Amino acid sequence: MAQPILRLGVNIDHVATVRNARGGCDPDPIRAAKLAEEAGADGITAHLREDRRHIGDADIEGLMDALTVPLNFEMAATAEMQQIALRHKPHAVCIVPEKREERTTEGGLEVAREENQLAHYIAPLREAGCRVSIFIAADQKQIEAANRIGAQVIELHTGAYCDAHAEGDFKTRDAELEKMRTMSAFAHELGLEVHAGHGLTYETVKPVAAFPEVVELNIGHFLIGESIFRGLTPAIAEMRRLMDEARA
């Protein structure tokens, strides 16, 4: 039996990073989002951080107006971000951990420890019609907690797997991959929709794309970097090809 088509969400945060390095309007992340859409992206991801280090409020406004594919709005579990999400009502919100001192999201959200607080936090988002995703490590305790609080989706953090591959630590890489394989199946059995992302490249995407329970990969930094050399449309097309090949 054929496996479900695997969706590709393209994160356009780091187009805004380049823009903000100099100020002004260029390069425009909304233009990048539209190009990604035309290249075959099934959705666009944007993370509005508390410190607005890349994506800004106007970018979210523009994306909501411009896109015909779903917007996945990444956000910390703060009152400010909840209000922004409730105002825009994007297709999906992904709750992620956030630290001011980190360069990028370093790990999954601690759901089990903050279960009651997060359950109350996401309830209005669900009531507003947003699909709620929780960005977590491939850990059974965190997956069970995400399910209990009412999340519809989990996104497995693939960073440890990708880092181990880049460092040539193949024993750790394979152990992380097996953990994600087991936990994606476990989450699926609970009735959760399973996504994955963070740090995926052409070299690392296929083993994760082959997991039958994973229905969406969210990839950003690598694709934006690769687009410098080959263009955004060909960069996305190659990622799409590798994902489809792994799923065939």
Q: Helix and strand layout, with pairings?
A:
Layout: E1 7-11, H1 13-22, H2 29-38, E2 43-47, H3 57-66, E3 71-75, H4 79-88, E4 92-95, H5 115-127, E5 131-136, H6 140-149, E6 153-157, H7 159-166, H8 170-190, E7 193-197, H9 205-209, E8 214-219, H10 221-230, H11 232-247
Parallel strand pairs: 1-2, 1-8, 2-3, 3-4, 4-5, 5-6, 6-7, 7-8
Helix pairs in contact: 2-3, 5-6, 6-8, 7-8, 10-11
Please indicate the percent range of residues in DSSP E strands (runs of 2 or more): 15-25%
- Overall shape: globular
Give the radius of gyration: 17 Å
Structural class: alpha/beta
Overall pLDDT confidence: 95
Could you explain the architecture of this structure?
The protein contains eleven helices and eight strands. By secondary structure, it is α/β, with parallel strands linked by helices. An eight-stranded parallel beta barrel has the order 1-2-3-4-5-6-7-8, surrounded by seven helices. The longest helix has 21 residues, at 170-190. The radius of gyration is 17 Å and the shape is globular. The model has no long low-confidence stretch (mean pLDDT 95).
